From TrEMBL:
Upper lineage: Eukaryota, Viridiplantae, Chlorophyta, core chlorophytes, Chlorophyceae
Record carries keyword Kinase: yes
PANTHER family with a match to the protein in the record: SHIKIMATE KINASE, SHIKIMATE KINASE 1, CHLOROPLASTIC
Any Pfam family hit: SKI
Protein name: shikimate kinase
The protein's enzyme class: transferase
Organism: Volvox africanus
Length: 345
């Protein structure tokens, strides 16, 4: 009995069982995308305590967990022109939004990816196909499979560039009649006019990257995988320098062909992505947005063409139908040629 008196709460205090939610709220951190929150170290000056005299010998100091905004570096770039590119949750929402709108109007139209080596056509294409629920084809990979999985560099060395381009054109021709495809083409596929004839049945997207960015990517992967770069490369030369010089020369030859694409998607990165270029999900969102803008503009153009009015249409009700002069002349000539008909018996 004595001990029970010591732990009795004074009148006016709310039992803890009635205030569970209030206590839980103190311990539950607030989630925010802009400023993540953490539990800070306990500060006695802000603590909520119950005087010892109210709790007797078993009284304890009640500590509250203080939740405050943490001053931490979350890896985001201040002043980023496209902040959602560094927030994948927000980027995912924006991708879903544009995909829902685009899917209704795309109607299975194929998407062809063109661009220089190192622009990420295959990587972006796979993610794009998965997002749109399309099938994905890489023309280089198809050629390799058709040649017992020989790498492109070996096919170039054994058969020559013309043979490779012929195989590439044949694949583009065979894929063009199908629907719901994303096709990543080789960097030189744009050089042949017949390829454009097949690709323009769908939507052609140019992944346009800066030469320095493309050279860094290609050098990192190794130029030996790129027969056009590895050919005649000086032994012991700086890989990045070789890649940059040859890519610059190739781009000069191909730029006017790439500019025939329906949409252009930049690979430029910002903030922490400045050196390596925009991440793949960000490039895919840029591509989806550009394609959607193109499709919606086409819809508006078609709607404007259908919005016409025939001047004087109200007078058509009172106009008489006249016999064609040419038909009357033809009938008269036919009657004269037959001559008089004998009387019937």
């Amino acid at each position: 009995m004595a001990s029970s008196k010591l732990i009795q709460r004074p009148k006016g205090l709310t039992p803890a069982s009635r205030n569970v939610q209030a206590h839980a709220a103190l311990l539950r951190p607030v989630i925010s995308r802009q400023a993540p929150f953490t539990a800070a170290s306990w500060n006695k000056s802000h603590a909520t305590s119950t005087p010892d005299r109210l709790w007797g010998r078993r009284a304890e100091l009640s500590r509250s967990v203080q939740v405050c905004g943490a001053e931490v570096d979350d890896g985001r770039t201040p002043g980023h022109p496209y902040p959602w590119e560094e927030d994948y949750d927000l980027l995912s929402d924006k991708v879903k939004e544009v995909t829902d709108e685009l899917s209704k109007d795309l109607r299975g139209c194929n998407i062809w990816l063109v661009g220089m080596m190192g622009s990420g056509k295959s990587t972006v294409g796979k993610m794009l196909a998965n997002t749109l629920k399309y099938a994905f084809f890489d023309t280089d990979s198809v050629i390799e499979l058709a040649h017992d999985k020989k790498p492109v560099s070996q096919i170039f060395a054994e058969e020559g560039q013309d043979y490779f381009r012929n195989c590439e054109s044949q694949i583009i021709k065979e894929l063009s009649p199908y629907r719901n495809l994303v096709i990543a083409t080789g960097g030189g596929a744009v050089l042949r006019p017949e390829n454009w004839g097949y690709m323009h049945i769908g939507i052609v997207c140019w992944l346009n990257g800066d030469i320095d960015l493309l050279a860094r990517r290609v050098a990192r992967d190794g130029i030996e995988k790129r027969p056009l770069l590895a050919a005649d490369a000086p032994e012991g030369a700086d890989v990045h320098v070789v890649a940059r010089e040859k890519l610059g020369s190739l781009l000069e030859q191909r730029r006017r062909y790439y500019e025939n694409a329906d949409v252009v998607v930049t690979l430029e990165g910002y903030g922490k992505d400045m050196e390596n270029g925009a991440p793949t999900p960000a490039v895919m969102y840029r591509l989806l947005t550009a394609v959607n803008d193109k499709v919606q503009a086409k819809k508006r153009e078609q709607a404007e063409r259908m919005n016409f009015r025939i001047e004087g249409a109200e007078q058509l009700r009172n106009m008489r139908t006249l016999e064609s002069p040419a038909a009357a002349a033809a009938a008269a000539a036919q009657g004269e040629g037959e001559g008089p008909q004998p009387p019937s018996p």
